[in-house]
Amino acid sequence: MSDTQELSKQQLKSKETKGRIFRAAKTILQEKGYEALSIKNICEEAGVSNGSFYHHFKTKDDLLSYYIEEQPSINPDLLDLPGSAEEAITTIVHVYLNYVEYCKELGLEFISNYYTPKNQSLNPDIRTERPYPILTVHNYLQKSIDAGAIALRRPLEDVSTDIRMIVIGNVFEWCLKNGKADFEQNMRRSLECYLDGVINKDI
Fold first, then answer.
1. How far apart (Å, rounded) are the C-alpha atoms in residues 18 and 46?
2. Which residues, 6 or more positions from 28, have their beta carbon under 8 angstroms from its beta carbon?
3. 3-class SS of residue 131
4. Euclidean distance between the first and final Cα of the chain, in Å?
5. Which of 27, 124, 148, 191 is least surrounded by CB atoms within 10 angstroms?
6. CA 41 to CA 159: how far, in whole Å?
7. Which is nearest to 26 in space by CA: 127, 105, 136, 142?
């Protein structure tokens, strides 16, 4: 058996183990909440050793951050330089409508337990460079500003923080109303309203 075939088997097994850990954490979050989400409980649910867990993830919050990374990717063409402020707004809203659909796929119970102050994977001060929606939007805005395609009325860091808080508010509203809030329309309306005031249309 060649080294390539053997490596492929190892990679397949590693992917399978990672998937089991993912599913175990999701099950615990949905059924028991964040308080029950310990590495011990995750490993027991997944049927893996602590060593296997730490082979794939540094910490529990490291594992949780991967749920955001797993969302459907954005078509790179949509992130090209905007031709106008309106086009930039449309792109940013699209990024977050994509996230809305992913939240729905993960389910209300999961998201309700995922969005807690105790979940430090949501803390922007300790995040890694994974493709979080806000990182995608921040980089898109920075690229557009550098190219002279758009201008902001507020510093970019302030705008990124504001967008993140708007998104969290919409997620919380959806959870608070047990999934009965118009998640997509609320996200679209609040982001468009904010961005319409912060992106300079006179450039």
1. 9
2. 36, 37, 41, 42, 45
3. coil
4. 63
5. 148
6. 39
7. 105
3 state SS of 75:
coil
pLDDT digits (tens, 9 = 90+) for 81-107: 999 999 999 999 999 999 999 999 888
Phi, psi at residue 97, to the nearest 5°? -70, -30
Decide if 148 contacts 85 (C-beta within 8 A).
Answer: no
pLDDT in tens, 28-65: 988 888 889 899 999 999 999 999 999 988 888 788 87
Nearest-angstrom CA–CA distance, 85 and 144: 10
Distances (CA, A) of 55 to 21, 37, 118, 138: 11, 18, 24, 31
What is the CB neighbour count within 10 angstroms for residue 193?
10
The residue among 114, 187, 197 whose CA lies nearest residue 158 is 197
C-alpha angle 193-199-200 in degrees, rounded to nearest 5: 125
CB count within 10 Å of CB 202 equals 5
Residues in the chain: 203
Place of tokens 């939240």: 103
Return the CA Rg of the chain. 19
- CB-CB neighbours of 159 under 10 Å: 20
